[in-house]
Amino acid sequence: MSVKADSVVNNNNDRKISKQSLGSNDSLAPKVAIVETFGEDQSYRYSFTYEKATLYEFKYEKAAKPAAIDPCYRCNRRVLAQDQVDIGVLFHKQCFRCRICGLPLTIQTFYRNDANESDREIYCKTHVGKNVAQIKSGEVPPMGIEGPSTGPGKKYIFQVTGSKRPLPATPPKPQMNKGIGSSPGMDSLASISPRNMNDTSAWTTQTSPNMSMESTPAYENFRPHQYIQQQQVKPSPHPKSVLVSYEDFENADVFDAQLLLEERHREEEERLLRFLMEEREKELKRLDDAIELEKEKAADDLLSSIENLSITSSIPRSLVDEKERIEDHFLQLKEERLKVVTEKIATEEKTRNGKMIDRHCHEMMTLIGEKDRQMDRLCLFDHSMKPPPEPPEGKKSSLYKSPAVFEALDLRALDLANKDYNTMTDLVRDLTRTCKTELEKARVLFRWVIAKDVNKHSVNEIVRPHATDRLLKGVKSGKETYHQLYKKLCSYAGLHCEIVLGYSKGAGYKPGMRMDGQTFRNSWTVVNINGSWRLVNCTWAARHVTGHKDNLPQMYHKYDEFYFLTDPEDHIYQHYPDDPQWQLMEIPLPFSEFLNLPVVKSPFFNYGLRFYSNYGATLNTDTGMVEVRLLIPKILGFGSMLEPVHRQPSEPKQIEGRTLLRLVNNEAIFTIALPATGLYYFSIYVGDYWKSECLESACTFLIQCTNMKGRPSPPYPPVPFFGPTPVMENLGISAESNIDPLVVCNNDFIEINFVLSKDIRLTHTFQYFDVSDGSITDIDRYVFLRSRNDTGANYLIRCHKAGFYIFSLFAADITGEAQSLDCAFRYLVICQEPSPTVAMFPKTYQKWHRCTLHEPLTGDLRVDKKVIFRLDVPQAIEVFVVINEIWHHLKHKIGCAWEGQVSTGPIPGVAKVYARFQGATKDQSIFSQMLDYQIVDDAETEI
Fold first, then answer.
1. How many angstroms separate the CA atoms of 431 and 415, rounded?
2. For 214, left (φ over 0), alpha (ψ -120 to 50), or beta?
3. Contact in structure between 761 and 731 (CB atoms under 8 Å)
4. What is the pLDDT of residue 507?
């Protein structure tokens, strides 16, 4: 192994310091030790030690070769499903740290180096876009959480040996071969991404504070991951409940005991309801009495003013008007006070009802806990004891891969949603009759609540207007929420469920808005499944869609799978709890960072989208250009909307032609060219199919442009996206030369190559977009299919003037019955400086598609010139060039090549290329037209 050692540098005066001086004059200065060790087998070890008041260390070892299945980008070892962090590349949870300093990161706090697309490492906010050499030289601080004293010029001491703390005993391992390598990520550039989002206010170290990575034989025998495994204590599994399945509850007589307890609960509910009704009547009577007293006093004052007038004079009209004004005033005053009192009463009723529900749920769980002990006195699990709020063990995907596994349970829940029940016990008994696990119970209760939420608008209530559902009485009266209903159901099923209060970025919220007071207040639930708390939102999960069928009102209900057992790192984009413990995240997110997250809706996660880098809610630009990049699992349908925050009523709501979408590999790249300075909302919409007309809102940003350097960019062509479509994969087509659909042409022509896996039908279009009037013109003579065979197609493109060009490839299976060809790939060609000698290509015909033209590539030939024709025409018997009815025979060369020199003659006209093919037709004397050239005077070709 070879070790890259660091000089000892003092950043205040850039002078070398001896190791002996470290313990005296600079004993209080922070000490940084960075050691990089490289092996001849391409293995790599990295150590970052930072000693201030305490010692902080970060170490990792990268295997020589990545694992064959799911390798970790940091250490090359396999990542198991329950330990994955997927951001386009996989990381272990313990490896998801800053490449430089090892700061623990989350999905919300990591950064990518957008300036270097080949750098797929992750960084903290301080070190994004930086490399190890910059830390060593003192250009940037080694850690970014010290406070105002952090920055260049702060006194740091860099040393090779690090601290003098002893090494722990470590198991021996074979010596690795020594060699020289280079540090990964050393060529990182400064980040130029949009405004970054997060910072981290707390960090921990993965390794023991006594560990060191000095360049010593002891370190050569040390494997960090082995030490961690030895030091970590495997957590004990959660105690398992005795009563889980429906059969367990039935055998333990839980349902019978619940019926008795529910009866007592119902009596308390009725008593509370009567009490609340009496209290409401008292409050309303007090309000009426107070209004009447004030009204009588005002009437007495008016009467006194009348008595002071002369008896003989008539009552002036002003007094009559005053009496009417008093009547109107007190009527309005009563309405205002009634509103305040009603809201106060409703709040108190909800509070009292909520406390009663909490108590009832606890009593129900206590009852089940007693049944636990009756079944097994040695059972460690107790239903009456609520587990502490902790991050869940594993992701949602570790519980189930697809909602299809719940198909039978979902159908049962929907069926029972149309049936009325008198007791909660009977309802839960029927719902959970086939349930074997806590997950199945939580699911079937969730789907029932969603169905009831939708059905409250259904036609059934019109058909059966007198039908009553006693279990939904509290919900329909407004005293109980669907979250409380779900909590009650869970308690009957033996599941711990809690209601969480906080803020939500719901309907009406836009990025950059404030959140305080009662604005955007919301609630949701957490349910405990197999010892882990999981996030559930029944209200947001329920969606209903109205439609018409056969002139009858119909209700279609659709639910959102995202809100069932949502992963905390996804849930935090929309919901922020008052109690940070209920974020269920290892490192809680500060409220300020929650506000700075973009507005992200559930379709973003349902369609498997991820941000390439951490974007803030506000994207700042001083050039008028902004880029947003999404990681996509497949080609999806996308749409976008750019709208000004402050607009005049006469201005359109949406700004057209300012967004360019490119699909490159597994990324969707949105480029926004703002028309002027100001504030804008930018929203992205997504659908399952690339031709989807119905798109769902995925995410929204606020774009702020305070200053624009230079003139605004012109609008983009009105094209949904540029790049491949699923037709490419279905037909086995791949773009060989230009994977990025954005191509810049500043030469005589550009070349585009497609690789084909089989014989298919191909065609193309080439169009020019005029930014002055928004028109699109076909210019087929500026694109040429130079060659085409079973394995590929080669196109040449010329741009005759500056602007935007659209090249589209269409394809279809040659054996298919489809008459039309679908778009397979679409390029946007930008020409900034067209060549002054640009000319059109020759015109092609159907028989040309398997041939290749070498010269001439110019479609306009000048008169009185000798032109060499060279082309490949497979299976041709003869090839001729016909000019003014004179046939010029081309000579057959090696293979399928044909060549000859032809004089264009003195008269302008058309030069046509014909070929006669062997076995192509019954009559081999038929000639097929291949190409057309225009013969023009010199004056016509002058620029």
1. 10
2. beta
3. no
4. 87
What is the rounded distance in angstroms from the CA atom of residue 191 to the CA atom of residue 80?
31
What are the beta bridge partners of residue 826?
723, 808
Q: Got the DSSP string for 397-455?
A: GGT-S-GGGGHHHHHHHHHHTTS--S-HHHHHHHHTTT--SHHHHHHHHHHHHHHHHHH
Which residues share a beta bridge with 498?
526
CA pair distance 87, 610, nearest whole angstrom = 7
Give SS3 for 39: strand
| One-letter amino acid for residue 360 of the chain | H
pTM over 0.85: no
Reference 29, options 53, 6, 62, 1; nearest CA is 53
For residue 856, is the peptide bond before it cis, meaning its omega torsion is within 30 degrees of 0?
Answer: yes
E strands in 44-164: 44-51, 55-62, 84-86, 90-92, 157-158
Handedness of CA 509, 515, 517, 522 (dihedral sign): positive
For residue 306, what pLDDT is reported?
A: 62
C-alpha torsion sign, points 503, 508, 509, 512: negative
3-state secondary structure 641-696: EEEECCCCCCCCCCCCCCEEEEEECCEEEEEEECCCCEEEEEEEEEECCCCCCCCE
Tokens of 929: 């037209």
Amino acid 651: pLDDT: 79
Question: What token pair was written down for 49?
Answer: 């030690």
Q: Which of 915, 735, 748, 759 lies closest to 840 in space, CA to CA?
A: 748
List, for the chain, all residue ranges whose pLDDT scores fall below the cut of 50: 1-26, 145-155, 158-236, 310-312, 455, 457-468, 544-556, 941-943
Which distant-in-sequence residues (6+ apart) come within 8 Å of 109 by Cβ? 124, 125, 197, 198, 199, 200, 587, 589, 593, 614
Find all residues with CB under 8 Å of 832, minimum gap 6, and list them: 744, 746, 802
Residue 825 structure tokens? 């790939």
Number of H helices, E strands in the chain: 18, 43
Backbone Cα Rg of the chain: 38
* CA separation, residue 782 to residues 431, 748, 804 (Å): 68, 11, 13
User: HEC profile for 352-369?
Assistant: HHHHHHHHHHHHHHHHHH
Cα(32)–Cα(141) distance, integer angstroms: 10
Distances (CA, A) of 123 to 91, 132, 238, 666, 723: 13, 12, 35, 22, 30
Give the amino acid at 170: T
User: What is the model's pLDDT at position 824?
Assistant: 93
Tokens of 377: 């006195």
DSSP state string for 851-918: -EEEE---SEEETT-EEEEEEE-TTEEEEEEEETTEEEEPEE-STTEEEEEEE--SS-EEEEEEEEET
**Nearest-CA neighbor of 413 among 456, 446, 436?**
446
Quick one: angle between helices 407-416 and 424-431, nearest 10?
150
| End-to-end CA separation in angstroms for the chain | 66
Cβ pair 748, 837 in contact under 8 A: yes
d(C-alpha 833, C-alpha 746), whole Å: 6
Burial of 621 (0-12, 13-18, 19+ CB in 10 A): buried
In eight-state DSSP terms, residue 387 is P
Structure tokens given for 349: 């009723």
| Per-residue exposure over 706-736, b if at least 16 CB sit within 10 Å of its own CB, e if not | eebeeebbebbbebebbbbbebbeebebebe
Q: Phi, psi at residue 333, to the nearest 5°? A: -60, -40
From CA 251, how far away is CA 835, in angstroms rounded?
87
- Tokens describing residue 212: 């060191």
Neighbours of 281 (CB within 10 A): 10
Task: Please list the helix, strand and coil fractions of the chain in percent, rounded to the nearest 5, in that order.
Answer: 25, 30, 45
Residue pair 76/43 in contact by the 8 Å Cβ criterion: no
